[in-house]
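Example S7 (structure tokens).
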């Protein structure tokens, strides 16, 4: 062994020693500083902080909340703390001291609060994947501007013209992936692919073919990264998500430039509502300049894909399970859908007017989202000290509401664990505003409701008029990670009712 090698070995050991020393020093500093910080905060706010404990430094109650999410016991987790502390309490979650609020009044406060009091800032790890200019990250006038552009495409008057297109995607999907399959089907991954395809076709104008195939694995990697521990080491899920974003952005930019060129060529006769990207490119300021920058468009369409992909597929997967388990709801839905099917030709596409007749089916979906809320938690950040309910929420703290906890409050929804779609009948007594918050509320309320409704109703229509199905595992369980994932993807066996219904004009 040469002196050079010994010298290198010595340098390496010094490096390891110094690095470890630095890590231990940082850990000690954190362990000392955090309790000191908490002590001074309590002193500063003269014990006006809400009751509850921040728990061990850094970790706080994050692990126990994650465990409750995983085992689908989130309402119990919140209920225990509400019983101990009341509707306003503090905890430490995901690295931040947090004030948790419960009830419709609190929901209204959080959802409608002025952006100068509460911001929607996401953790830096999330905005690195979604992009810093995505709609969920923006506030004030920037948020309003991007939201106007988004809603101008997602409003019913525009979506109406796309019902047949969504229906065609669904029929193609069922024909290719469900029809004539004798083996067990995994419903959840199939429906995820379907919702991805619908969003690609409708919002990005990317039709079936190799281009769409290239997008899917990149989006999947990004989605998985959003829900992972943000460590940027090779082979971590988070690193894969960042790499996927780096590959996806140039592809989306290319798509955006194609659409911009297409728009310039056909300025006069082009349809500005052809797809979301074209719609965003078409919105102009008074001086003729585009209202949104390229970066805002790219980041927003990535965020829209993420927001619309898992949520609708979770709802549809739970509906497939419900219809296999509850014969009475199943036959009511079949009756409603058959009435619509019988007055249409066998290969005729669904229209907006057909969807408006599916009232019972939508009440079932609404009740499903009350019991299995796709977005169970909403976080905000205090931009200044806020007084709420006799307590102080200090600047910089997180504020959390749980929609699923509100949905399980028996004072708002009597007998809350019972699945009862009649709660949403026209003449049923309605709970106070901000009690049903599956789609949020206020200026950040989900702009995708109409699209989610359209996808859900059209898919249920095609499913119950084409197949019957049975669950292969009656009690297949699921984990929330944080979106619900069935252990085996919800295994079913399907039988076609008749052959002709899925045919469509290609
Ligand atoms: C069953 C389906 C869906 C559910 C339950 C759902 C639920 C929600 C909720 C609760 C929020 C508000 C979160 C908060 O305030 O913290 C939200 C926001 C959002 N959703 Fe949905 N969503 C669904 C489908 C969709 C679809 C299909 C799209 C896309 C077209 C979409 C796009 C968005 C966007 C862009 C936001 C952010 C809005 C903003 O910050 O202004 N969602 N969604």
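Recovered sequence:
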């Amino acid at each position: 062994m040469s002196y050079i090698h010994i010298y290198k070995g010595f340098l390496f050991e010094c490096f390891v020693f110094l690095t470890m020393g630095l890590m231990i020093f940082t850990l000690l500093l954190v362990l000392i500083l955090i309790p000191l910080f908490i002590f001074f905060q309590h002193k500063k706010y003269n014990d006006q902080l809400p009751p509850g404990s921040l728990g061990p430094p850094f970790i706080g109650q994050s692990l126990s909340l994650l465990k409750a999410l995983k085992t689908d016991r989130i309402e119990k987790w919140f209920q225990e703390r509400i019983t101990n502390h009341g509707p306003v309490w503090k905890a430490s979650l995901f690295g931040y001291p947090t004030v948790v609020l419960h009830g419709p009044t609190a929901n209204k406060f959080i959802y409608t609060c002025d952006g100068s009091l509460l911001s929607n800032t996401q953790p830096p790890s999330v905005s690195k994947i979604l992009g810093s200019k995505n709609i969920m990250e923006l506030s004030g006038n920037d948020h309003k501007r991007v939201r106007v552009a988004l809603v101008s495409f997602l409003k019913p008057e525009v979506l109406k013209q796309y019902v047949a297109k969504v229906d065609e995607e669904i029929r193609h999907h069922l024909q290719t992936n469900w029809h004539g399959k004798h083996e067990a089907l995994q419903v959840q991954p199939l429906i995820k692919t379907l919702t991805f395809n619908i969003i690609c076709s409708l919002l990005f104008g990317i039709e079936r073919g190799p281009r769409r195939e290239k997008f899917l694995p990149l989006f999947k990697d990004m989605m998985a990264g959003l829900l992972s521990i943000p460590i940027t080491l090779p082979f971590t899920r988070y690193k894969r998500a960042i790499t996927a974003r780096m590959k996806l952005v140039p592809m989306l930019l290319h798509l955006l430039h194609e659409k911009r060129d297409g728009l310039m060529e056909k300025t006069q006769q082009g349809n500005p509502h052809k797809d979301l990207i074209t719609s965003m490119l078409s919105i102009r300021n008074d001086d003729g300049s585009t209202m949104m920058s390229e970066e805002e468009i790219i980041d927003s369409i990535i965020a829209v894909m993420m927001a619309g992909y898992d949520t609708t597929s979770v709802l549809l997967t739970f509906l497939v399970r419900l219809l296999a388990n509850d014969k009475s709801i199943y036959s009511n839905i079949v009756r409603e859908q058959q009435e619509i099917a019988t007055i249409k030709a066998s290969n005729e596409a669904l229209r907006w007017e057909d969807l408006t007749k599916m009232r019972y089916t939508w009440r079932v979906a609404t009740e499903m989202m009350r019991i299995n809320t796709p977005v169970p938690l909403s976080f905000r950040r205090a931009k200044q000290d806020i007084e709420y309910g006799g307590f102080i929420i200090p600047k910089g703290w997180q504020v959390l509401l749980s929609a699923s906890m509100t949905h399980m409050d028996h004072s708002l929804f009597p007998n809350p664990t019972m699945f009862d779609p009649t709660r949403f009948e026209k003449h049923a007594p309605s709970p106070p505003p901000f009690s049903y918050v599956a789609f949020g509320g206020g200026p950040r309320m989900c702009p995708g409701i109409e699209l989610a409704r359209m996808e859900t109703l059209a898919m249920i229509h095609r499913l119950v008029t084409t197949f019957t199905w049975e669950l292969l595992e009656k009690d297949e369980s699921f984990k929330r990670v944080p979106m619900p994932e069935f252990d085996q993807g919800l295994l079913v066996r399907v039988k076609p009712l008749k052959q002709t219904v899925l045919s469509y004009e290609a």
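Notes on this example. DSSP finds 18 helices and twelve strands in the chain.
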